[in-house]
């Protein structure tokens, strides 16, 4: 004996499948975006771009603070080397060590600049207000 619930379900599924078949001849193609979604999308993109700029500026500020240390070390070591060169007798070994430190700190500063430049190039951050 057939189950009435199963027959009803089968009939409903068949009617649903036939009723909701897409008909390409009745498709409506609109060139215009949905009224509400485009402004919302633009607003979201603008907020994302702003957040990206803020994050980049934070990263740039950290890089500037980081590069300040080796530059300060270069200046202090150079001043110390100059004082040692003026002293009599001149301690050439101490001057040589200070010059080696200056080279090392200069290389470190260059590495920080290179890393910051690479990070900036990867992010493609724009700072204009053209809206795109």
Quick one: biggest sheet? none
Distance between the termini: 68 Å
- Could you tell me the strand content as a percent range? under 5%
Order of helices and strands: HHH
Query: Which percent range fits the helix content?
Result: over 70%
Low-confidence stretches: none
Number of β-strand runs: 0
Mean pLDDT, all residues: 78
**Global geometry:** rod-shaped
C-alpha Rg (nearest Å):
35 Å
Helix and strand content put the structural class at mainly alpha
Number of helices: 3
Give your account of this protein's structure.
The longest helix has 50 residues, at 37-86. The chain is built from three helices and no strands. It is rod-shaped and about 80 Å long. Helix 2 (37-86) packs antiparallel against helix 3 (92-123). With 132 residues, the protein is mostly helical.
Summarize the structure.
With 132 residues, the protein is mostly helical. 74% of the residues lie in helices and 0% in strands. The chain has a domain at 39-123.
Question: How do the helices and strands line up, and which of them pair or pack?
Answer:
Blueprint: H1 4-19, H2 37-86, H3 92-123
Helix pairs in contact: 2-3
Features of this protein?
132 residues; mainly alpha; 3 helices
